[in-house]
Every structure is written in structure tokens, then in C-alpha cells.
Write a structure and sequence with these properties.
Helix content is 42%, strand content 16%. By secondary structure, it is α/β, with parallel strands linked by helices. The strands form two sheets. An eight-stranded mixed sheet has the order 3-4-2-1-5-6-7-8, with helices on both faces. A six-stranded parallel sheet has the order 11-10-9-12-13-14, sandwiched between helices. Strand 1, helix 1 and strand 2 (36-42) form a beta-alpha-beta unit. The model is unreliable at 13-17 (pLDDT under 50).
Length: 416
């Protein structure tokens, strides 16, 4: 099987580069199963246009007029009315050029490698996948990783206009939409947009229980690397630092916690457009000496830090049941998260395998963290139950990838 996969950017973990394992691991699984993957993505660095990494044929392309760099159209740099108008114009131009150049680059690759299936690796590449499937006469699928709570805003006309490009992805006649079940109800967005049930595949990601295992021995090693004293407990957040993940909620309440509790350190793993703002919040509150921002780190380093941590915190607006929560639970960590949707309540039973906080009671976060930091036995008990929960709810990555390979092969053979 030859797969042509298209993505918006370089979001996987390989060769020591930080990223999202849920993007990389299926591709790695395809390669390990003997299939061929050609991965095309937009790149704004000076790396080579083509190279082979971990057996994956990686192709990079750029946009004209210097529009490859996404920061040129970022809302975080648009302050004045003129800047916002200019951002709107450039953003739409960038989107148009991305789709045109992506199709042209994909056709060049397709002529050489003759793909069996086109794999749009995000809703943002659905149009590219659609046109490539027309020109190559091959089936195609769209993978949706999460839509940031769009489901809860879908009744608003303004939200539909604002998210037009995302919603457009559900109007392409893909053979399947593989949607990650993470509590964001993205599969219900697909249904509301008219996608037939027969074309929706709603799967959880997997967990590699060989990697995400409790390992108390890492406590010393990680603290030494991060410059943290051995007796200091770690409060951990692992996420992209953007407006939806709301790490600012954690940072906002840390001064109140640190005033009463003098030993703990907060480690924030990840990067994104909100990082500078979060760092400034820490400096302004005079807690920057007790908060460590690691930026993107490799997958192995994330696992080590998760094992060394004492409490994992996730306070996203919509869904907190992403990979980092599952992985921290697999490492037998006590988790603290928001009780803001039914999916989270299915997974976390408050005071049993974690702690749930109602959004309107977020002010209790310092008190909750303080009590947990004082009670190591309680954290341990919750962590062990959290691991039991993951083992009941989640399959392995190998099983998850095997299902996806079987699905792709069936589509290619026109068996379903």
C-alpha cells in the first residue's frame, strides 16, 4: 500500500524533534507494517525539500510572497484595525495559495509514486486531498484530531462563518472521516454538517503501555536535569500553549498556592503562541523562579517528566481528555481537571481516580492542589486507580494502528 499523506505542518515526534505522537505513530505503524508513506507538508525552514526520515518519504513545500510563515497572519500580532484587515487579506490569500500549491506538489509526487490512497492528515488539508483524489482517481480519507470545542459553538451563525474553512472539510466526499474521540464531539460536528454515519469512524487513540509505565526511578534523574531539588514536588501541564488550552488558569492560581505551600515547582511542557504571555504572567506575579517552561521536548523526555511529576493538571475550555491526560494516568499520576463535559465525567470519578473541578469553582484550585501536595498516599491511591482506568478504556497503539491499516486496505480494495 502506497499512502500519500498531506499535513499543514511538521507535527510529529521523530529524530528527537518535539511534536504530537498521535500524528507520527500511525505513520510509523504503516511503515512497520511494510507500507510506503509519502508525507507532504508546508515548511518555513531551510530544510531540504525532500529527505527520508525513519523510512518516511518527507516532502516540503513553500508558499510565494513569504506567506509560508504562519506568524504573518497570526491574530496575536494584529492589534490595530489596519493590522487586522491586513491579516484578514493575507490569511485568505495564504489559505488559497496553500491549497493550490499543495495540490500541484501532490500531483508531482503522485505521478512518480502512484499512491493507492490519499490521506488528508487534518481538516485543513481536506480540499487538497479531495482534488488529488479526483486527479489520481484514488480514494481518500480525512483525519480530524480535534476541533477545539467547535461543537458547542455550532449554533452560532458568526461561529459558522468564522470556522468556514474547518466546516468546509466536512463537505468534501471523502471515503472516510477518521475522527479522534477526545471529548470534543467532533464526530457530532461531522453529523451536523451532513456526513453520513457510514463514513464516520470515531476512534480513541492508543497508549503504548511499554513506554507509559510508572517508573519511580525517573524522579531523581528528571529533577537533576531540570535543576529542581529532589524533595520538591512537581505540578505538571503538558499541552500546546494556545488560547483553548487555558494554561493561564493554572498560572493565575499558582501565586495563591505558592503563598501557602513553599516547596512545589510547576513544570509546563509545550510551546505555542501564548508562551510569552504566560511567562510574563509568572514574572509579574514573582513566581517565575518556581515555574519552568520546557518548550517542545522529545516524546521520551515527555514520558520521563510525566513519570517524575506528582500532579498533572489540565484546564482546557472544552475537552481535557487528550493524549497527555491519558498518558499521565497511564504513568499512575494523580490528575486534576475540569468537570466541563460528559465525556470527562465518564473517565474521571472525582476523589477516586482524579479530581474534577466545576468551572464555576475554579477558585478552589489552590486549595485542592495544596491538599494533594500534603497527602502523598492520596496521590498514590488516585494514580493507581487512574492507571487502572486507562487500561480499561484504552487499547494499545499497535491495536489502534492495526485497525486503521485494515480500514485503509478495505477502502483501497473497495470492500466497504
Amino acid at each position: 500500500m502506497v499512502i500519500l499523506s498531506i499535513n499543514r505542518s511538521f507535527f510529529w515526534t521523530m529524530g528527537g524533534i518535539g511534536g504530537v505522537p498521535s500524528v507520527y505513530l500511525p505513520i510509523e505503524g504503516f511503515i512497520n507494517a511494510g507500507h510506503h508513506v509519502h508525507y507532504l507538508y508546508l515548511d518555513d525552514t531551510n530544510r531540504r525539500k525532500f529527505e527520508i526520515i525513519d523510512g518516511i518519504n518527507v516532502y516540503r513545500f513553500c508558499l510565494p510572497f513569504g506567506l509560508t510563515n504562519e506568524s504573518r497572519v497570526s491574530k496575536y500580532f494584529a492589534v490595530s484595525v489596519t493590522q487586522k484587515i491586513w491579516r484578514f487579506v493575507l490569511g485568505n490569500l495564504r489559505w488559497l495559495l496553500f491549497n493550490i500549491v499543495g495540490v500541484l506538489e501532490g500531483l508531482n509526487i503522485s505521478r512518480r509514486v502512484k499512491p493507492d490512497i490519499i490521506y488528508a492528515n487534518t481538516e485543513q488539508t481536506a480540499l487538497i486531498g479531495y482534488f488529488l483524489s479526483i486527479f489520481t482517481r484514488r480514494p481518500f480519507i480525512v483525519r480530524i484530531y480535534g476541533l477545539g470545542g467547535l461543537y458547542w459553538r455550532l449554533d452560532s451563525v458568526f461561529s459558522k462563518i468564522k470556522n468556514f474553512r474547518t466546516l468546509l472539510a466536512f463537505k468534501v466526499p471523502a471515503d472516510r472521516f477518521i475522527i479522534i474521540e477526545d471529548g470534543n464531539n467532533s464526530h457530532l460536528v461531522a453529523k451536523k454538517m451532513g456526513v453520513p454515519d457510514s463514513k464516520i469512524v470515531n476512534w480513541r487513540n492508543g497508549i503504548d503501555f511499554n513506554i507509559y509505565n510508572p517508573d519511580p526511578g525517573l524522579r531523581f534523574e528528571v529533577r537533576k536535569k531540570l535543576g529542581i531539588q529532589q524533595d520538591k514536588p512537581i505540578i505538571l501541564a503538558v499541552t500546546r500553549l494556545d488560547e483553548l488550552k487555558r494554561v493561564d488558569r493554572l498560572v493565575q492560581y499558582l501565586p495563591q498556592l505558592f503563598k501557602e505551600e513553599h516547596d512545589s515547582v510547576c513544570v509546563i511542557v509545550g510551546d505555542g503562541p501564548k508562551r510569552h504571555e504566560l511567562e510574563k504572567m509568572c514574572r509579574d506575579s514573582a513566581i517565575d523562579k518556581r515555574v519552568i517552561f520546557t518548550g517542545y521536548v522529545s516524546r521520551d523526555q515527555v514520558v520521563d517528566i510525566q513519570n517524575a511529576a506528582d500532579i498533572f493538571v489540565a484546564l482546557s475550555d472544552y475537552s481535557n481528555c487528550g493524549n497527555s491526560l491519558w498518558e499521565s494516568m497511564a504513568c499512575a499520576k494523580c490528575v486534576v481537571t475540569l468537570n466541563n463535559n460528559d465525556y470527562t465525567k465518564q473517565i474521571i470519578k472525582s476523589q477516586d481516580n482524579g479530581v474534577l473541578i466545576l468551572p464555576e469553582e475554579l477558585y478552589k484550585l489552590p486549595e485542592i492542589l495544596f491538599d494533594l501536595l500534603k497527602d502523598a498516599e492520596k496521590r498514590k491511591r488516585m494514580g493507581l486507580r487512574a492507571r487502572d482506568t486507562v487500561q480499561r478504556f484504552m487499547g494499545t497503539w499497535d491495536a489502534r494502528i492495526a485497525k486503521e491499516i485494515k480500514l485503509l486496505e478495505s477502502i483501497i480494495k473497495n470492500e466497504i
